[in-house]
Design a protein that fits this description.
This protein folds into three domains: about 80 residues, Four Helix Bundle (Hemerythrin (Met), subunit A) (Up-down Bundle), CATH 1.20.120.140; about 190 residues, Rossmann fold (3-Layer(aba) Sandwich); about 130 residues, 434 Repressor (Amino-terminal Domain). Helices cover about 60% and strands about 10% of the residues. The protein contains 21 helices and eight strands. The chain has an eight-stranded mixed sheet, with helices on both faces. A hairpin with a 7-residue loop joins strand 7 and strand 8. The two termini are about 35 Å apart.
Length: about 425
């Protein structure tokens, strides 16, 4: 997510860090580079201009010029300005404590709108809500089928009608929610390839009919300034409440994320960074600013770990580590937990202190898939007693997992090395 932008910021700040103090010249050179980076990232020109002016004013202060820590001071200034640009603070979804909360989801076709509806329903269900998905996109082929498939995957019902009348579907969905005890209605409205009058008229009508507590505009972060322009057009007509940035795990330059809040004046509420139904994060400006500047996001990382953390399993694992009885069965459980947390690249980006080059490296998530396939091709006895893995067993495992004998040998050796290391740590009291 925003890897290229993060890497470029990191290089510039390293240049300044190597200098004794800030001067008007190195501040000017740094700001000129930052301006070029932001424009290359497709950040809105006006937003870039205001950002640079604000940074310049703060960086040129006498106190800053006299400092012996130029890199740290400029990093702090950039961080503060990025947070301001992204919205200063998290703005939560408005959810009624009693009665039904109606959430309308709007956006252009192809923005990931329908997928987001499923992800949001899944997240709210995890928070104890009882959501109802509503298939009001009656124009896009297979839109209803896609929403139904998402609903089935997360065990959330989908309201739909045979009639091609989005206004009627929206109206009756609220009645259905009241009758069936659902406290959250998520309406997937129709999108178009571009903003048009018919699309806006239908969305405005649905808004008047259901009186939603939240209208969320979903935008494809990879479309740059086109996305910002679409957001402004939607906001002028519909006056939505918040923004959702999708496809943040792709090759997004960052321009959309850094521009949209400032141009539209509405908060970013969620970012979506993967295809899985749980790949949805509540947006925090300071956390994204920290990632952009290469400082990681340890809070989000801890939250991800906690969401997959089972206390009883953790105690059992600790006991096995202490007794040096950690086997392939335990290893398989850890792989499952890591996969649930997201891609390896997204996890690496959250770890503070990891070099930018490593964070931005193309980490192959298929490596975990191969390891899992090898372990699953083992018998239960083999997983628990790796020492019995002789040549014929390894050959069978390679065939069963679709890998090579070299892959199996490498995994067994690495696992053996890990067990040796754990044994040494146990003897030194490392697991107490």
């Amino acid at each position: 997510m925003l890897q290229d932008l993060s890497l470029k910021f990191d290089k510039i700040l390293k240049k300044v860090t190597g200098q004794g103090k800030l001067t008007e010249k190195n501040i000017s050179d740094t700001i000129r580079e930052i301006r070029r980076i932001l424009l290359d990232a497709d950040v809105n020109f006006k937003v870039t201009k205001e950002f640079i002016e604000s940074v310049s004013i703060k960086a040129m202060g006498q106190e800053v010029l006299a400092s012996l820590s130029p890199g740290q001071l400029l990093t702090k200034i950039f961080f503060d300005e990025l947070v301001t640009l992204l919205g200063t603070e998290n703005v939560s979804l408005k959810l009624n404590a009693t009665g039904v909360t109606v959430i309308m989801v709007v956006g252009l076709q192809g923005s990931g709108k329908t997928t987001f509806c499923g992800k949001l329903a899944n997240k709210l269900k995890g928070q104890g809500r009882k959501p109802l998905l509503v298939a009001a996109d009656i124009y896009r082929p297979a839109a209803i089928e896609q929403l139904v498939a998402l609903g089935d995957a997360i065990s959330v019902p989908v309201f739909r009608l045979e009639e091609k009348d989005a206004r009627k579907i929206a109206r009756e969905s609220v009645q259905e929610a009241i009758a069936k005890g659902h406290n959250t209605v998520i309406i997937d409205t129709a999108g178009r390839l571009h903003v048009d009058e018919a699309l806006m008229k239908e969305i405005v009508d649905i808004k008047e009919i259901v009186q939603p507590q939240e209208i969320l505009f979903v935008v494809d972060s990879m479309t740059g300034q086109d996305a910002v322009n679409s957001a402004k057009a939607f906001h002028d007509q519909v006056d939505f409440d918040g923004i959702v940035l999708t496809k943040m795990d792709g090759d997004a330059k960052g321009g959309c994320a850094l521009s949209i809040r400032s141009v539209v004046g509405k908060p970013i509420k969620y970012i979506s960074n993967g295809e899985k139904v749980d790949a949805l994060e509540v947006f925090f400006p300071d956390r994204l600013a920290s990632r952009i500047l290469g400082k990681g996001d340890v809070v989000s990382l801890v939250e991800k770990v906690q969401s997959e953390f089972d206390e009883s399993e953790a105690e059992e694992l600790e006991e096995k580590l202490r007794k040096n009885k950690f086997d392939f069965e335990d290893f398989l459980k850890q792989i499952k937990m890591i996969k649930k947390m997201g891609s390896l690249s997204s996890i690496m980006a959250m770890i503070p202190g990891i070099p930018a080059q490593l964070k931005n490296a193309n980490i192959d998530d298929n490596a975990l898939v191969r390891i899992e396939a090898i372990i699953r091709s083992m018998t239960k006895e083999e997983r628990m007693k790796p020492k019995i893995l002789n040549g014929s067993r390894r050959s069978r495992i390679a065939r069963g997992s679709g890998t090579s004998i070299q892959d199996v040998n490498r995994l067994v050796k690495q696992f053996g090395d890990m067990q040796t290391m754990m044994s040494r740590m146990t003897k030194r009291g490392g697991f107490r």
